[in-house]
């Protein structure tokens, strides 16, 4: 793994995540996680899709320099359980144990930053899978318990923090818009780029790649689709929104790298992948 002057060992940050993970992964994976966590060189554009499916949620992403991670949550028996499907949820494997408490410990160890020396804001994308209103209210309560970690909106202003929580999935737009105080920010869609919503509410727009583009990385990107991609990103950026696509090709090979190169060239802010090591290598080699 690459190291820099800002890379360091983070001691004691993994306890909560390990406790939640140990019973759900092979013993070798759980015991391997007990080692100190090494922070990789941060990649401003690296987004860990379905991050919780890795052996060490959050922690593996940090080792590969990811600055955005995604967690699907279900409100079940009063817990914000993390899993892709409700049948996969387990008691104790929660947003707090896998993400919130470990992020707090990393931030404390880093002197108020996730990656010391990196001036960007880390993103926690919370994808609500259960009832939007009830689950969002529970997410807000959970985030509010970590005020030193999360960016906060209050009375028309955004107050900085090392991590911004963005709410995707079943997002209660009216509730979030009306709130005078909140820790959650809204994840828009491509149709929202012209909405005029303020970045104090909607800092991010996400869309399925296949909704907008048919090209999957084979051969050169058609000129019309490349123009559409770059125009879309430029328009979003002009309104202050960051851009993310999901459902991009993610099988290792030339097609995936071709798509990643186009995303990088167009200025897409968050490149989506399940392959942490693969994107780490790509961005290191391509200045991302």
TrEMBL record:
GO terms for molecular function: phosphoric diester hydrolase activity. Residues 1-29 form the signal peptide. Keywords: Signal. InterPro entries: AIM6_PI-PLC-like_dom, HAT_RTT109-like, PLC-like_Pdiesterase_TIM-brl. GO terms for biological process: lipid metabolic process. The keyword Mitochondrion does not apply. It comes from Xylanimonas oleitrophica. It holds the Pfam family GDPD_2. This is Altered inheritance of mitochondria protein 6. Transmembrane segments: none annotated. CDD domains: PI-PLCc_GDPD_SF_unchar3. The keyword Protein transport does not apply.
């Amino acid at each position: 793994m690459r190291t820099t002057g800002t890379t360091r060992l983070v001691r004691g940050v993994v306890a909560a995540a390990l406790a939640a993970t140990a019973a759900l992964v092979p013993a070798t994976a759980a015991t391997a996680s007990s080692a100190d966590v090494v922070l990789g060189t941060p990649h401003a554009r690296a987004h860990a899709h379905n991050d919780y499916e890795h052996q060490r949620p959050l922690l593996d992403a940090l080792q590969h320099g990811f600055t955005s991670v995604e967690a699907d949550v279900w409100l079940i028996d009063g817990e914000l359980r993390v899993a892709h499907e409700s049948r996969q949820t387990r008691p104790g494997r929660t947003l707090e144990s896998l993400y919130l408490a470990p992020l707090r410990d990393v931030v404390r160890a880093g002197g108020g930053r996730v990656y010391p020396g990196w001036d960007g804001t880390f993103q926690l994308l919370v994808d609500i899978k259960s009832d939007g209103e009830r689950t969002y209210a529970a997410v807000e309560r959970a985030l509010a318990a970590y005020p030193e970690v999360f960016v906060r909106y209050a009375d028309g202003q955004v107050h900085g923090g090392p991590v911004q929580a963005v709410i995707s999935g079943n997002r209660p737009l009216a509730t979030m818009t009306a709130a005078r105080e909140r820790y959650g920010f809204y994840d828009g869609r491509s149709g929202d780029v012209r909405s005029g919503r303020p970045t104090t509410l909607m800092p991010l727009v996400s869309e399925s790649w296949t909704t907008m583009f048919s090209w999957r990385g084979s051969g050169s990107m058609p000129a019309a689709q490349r123009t559409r991609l770059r125009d879309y990103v430029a328009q979003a950026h002009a309104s202050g929104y960051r851009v993310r696509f999901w459902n991009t090709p993610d099988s290792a090979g030339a097609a995936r790298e071709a798509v990643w190169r186009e995303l990088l060239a167009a200025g897409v802010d968050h490149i989506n992948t399940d392959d942490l090591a693969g994107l780490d290598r790509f961005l290191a080699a391509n200045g991302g």
